[in-house]
Specification:
Layout lengths: L1 H4 L18 H6 L2
Length: 31
């Protein structure tokens, strides 16, 4: 499950997420 493995509230793994290009919150988290 994407949400349980990558997009966790306290420590999201945005750098390895395949949806990063479509996720505004993830783009804020990745330098």
């Amino acid at each position: 499950w994407h949400g349980r493995r990558l997009c966790m509230a306290k420590k999201p793994k945005c750098d390895v997420c395949p949806f990063l290009p479509h996720c505004p919150e993830g783009q804020k988290n990745v330098p």
